[in-house]
Structure formats: C-alpha cells, structure tokens
Amino acid sequence: MEVSEPPDEDVDRSIDSLSTTSGIERLSESLNSSVRDTFNASADAYQPATIIWTAVKGVVIISIIVTALVGNVLVIASVRRHRKLRVPTNRYVVSLAAADFLVAVCAMSFNASVELTGQWMFGRVMCDVWSSLDVYFSTASILHLCCISVDRYYAIVRPLEYPAIMRRITVTCMLGSAWLLPALISFIPIFMGWYTTEEHLEELRKNPQKIELKRRRVERVSVTQVCMFEVNRPYAVISSSVSFWIPGLVMIVMYCKIYKEAVRQREALSRASSNTVLNSVHMHRASTSRHHSRASHQLLLHPSDASDFARPVTYRTAAELNVENGDLY
C-alpha cells in the first residue's frame, strides 16, 4: 500500500500559514506589551509622588529661566539708559547679556519641555535646530567671557597700552568673532551631518520618521521619543576645544596674570604706605628736635652778653661800688 505524499505546494502553503500565524502572534504580543507599558507609564505619571516631583521641577526650571530673562534684560536696559555706562568695556557685558538671554529663550525653554514631559514633541527638524541653537549660544557666551578676560588684562596689567589697543575697531572685531565662530561648530556641521556617527546617519536614512528621534526604554516607558545629539570623535574634540578648552585656558592665563599684578600693586602700596609712615615719624622727630634746639638757644646767652661778662668793670665813684655790693650807706 503506497502512501501518497502531499505535493510541495501544500507543504509550502502550510509553512506559510504557520509562519503567518506565528508572526501575527508575535505582533499581537508586541502590541499588548506596548499597550501594557503605555498604560503603566500613564498610571505612573498620574501618581501623587510623580505629580509633586514634576511640579517642583517645573517651578525650579521656570524660575531659572525667568531669572535669566529678567536679569539680562535689566543689564541691557541699564547700559542703554545711563550714558556713563556706555564705555567700551560694557559693550562686552551687553553682548554677553544678549547671548545669555538667547540661551534662556532658545535652549532652556526646549529643555524645560523635555524635562517636564519626558519626551521630545517637536519633530526631527526642530531637534536639529534646538541642538544648533544650544551649541551656538552657549559657545558665544563662553567666548564673550574670554573677551572680557583679555580686556581686563590690558586694563590692569598694561594700562598704558590699553587705549591704543582696545579701540572701538578692536572691540568690534572681538565681538564679531565671538558671534561668528560658534556657527562653525553648530549650524554648519549639524545640518550637514558632520557631527554624528555613520551608524546614526544610516539609521536616519533608513527610517527618517522614526529616528527623528531615537527610541529608548526608560523604566516602564516603552517608546519615549527623545532628541538625541550623538556626536563622533572629531566633532567632539573640535567642538569642545572651541567652546571650552581654548577659552578656558585663555581665561586662566589672563586672570592669573591679573592676580599677580594685583599682588604686586598691593605690595607696592604697602611699601609706599610704610615709607610714608616712616617719613612722617622722621619729620616729627626733626621738628621736635628743632623745637628743643630753639628753646635751648633761647636759654643761652648771646655772644655780646658773654663779652660783657668778660669786660672788666670800672666804677667811677665809691658810691657806685657801694651800691653794687649792697652797701647803701
């Protein structure tokens, strides 16, 4: 008795049905897991402790942002209103206040939304824009601090050269550099894709809608969207050097020289004050000795008086001799 084998088509159809069934089961399990995780995340988000912590964090972040905005606006308004404050040095201060104001507006505000909601809600393009603005204005602020340290160095250590070096054109060029250099490590490399790794770029090309925001698993939250700023090594070295290491080194050198000059001037003032005290003591002693010598001179006889004592006394009559000796009679 022969057993007929099923045709190949039936076998393939059976395998396909089994694979389809297993795929549907896996998809269903994945969806159920996502729903459960989302539900758990939502439930956790509405717990009293989570709400209180989010509220406290929101108050702190908003207070910092408002303080930064109001403080920098007051600095700019003060310099603009008072004519005495419109000196070349304060041009650095006004420009620094503008940079810090824009940091609060363009960088801290988006960061606040991420901290409070736990995810990025503005899309891939705005993710790149936010990253560029954050790098740009933060670097500009640090470069302004570097310019201020150089200005203070010439004003304190080399004051005679300060008017000739720190002219209006010099200040303008320094401020222009502080605003232009950050663009070389922010907008250009970020929008050209030079800042990140090849893996990240490949992932962006394959699924641009998904990676707008790289997904990560945070506790029970399964698919939190975040704005990832993943950099490669060359960009990290160049960016950190321009925005931190080089300006930091310049500021350390400048302020060390300023400190040494301040110590030197303090020692010079101390020596000058000591010399002044010693001179006043010597002058007081000299005046006192002159006063005593004058008083002693008044007590001494004049040479003419001494000559009178040396001259022999003659008496014309006996009566004068008796009067000198006290004999009236």
UniProtKB/TrEMBL annotation:
Source organism superkingdom: Eukaryota
Residue ranges of the TM segments: 51-79, 91-110, 130-150, 171-195, 235-256
Name this protein carries in UniProt: G-protein coupled receptors family 1 profile domain-containing protein
A Pfam family assignment: 7tm_1
Organism of derivation: Frieseomelitta varia
GO biological process entries: adenylate cyclase-activating adrenergic receptor signaling pathway; positive regulation of MAPK cascade
Domain G-protein coupled receptors family 1 profile stretches: 71-301
Localization (cell): Cell membrane
Swiss-Prot/TrEMBL keywords: Cell membrane, G-protein coupled receptor, Membrane, Receptor, Transducer, Transmembrane, Transmembrane helix
Membrane topology: Multi-pass membrane protein
GO CC, alphabetical: plasma membrane
Similarity section: Belongs to the G-protein coupled receptor 1 family.
Principal localisation: membrane
GO molecular function terms noted in the UniProt entry: octopamine receptor activity
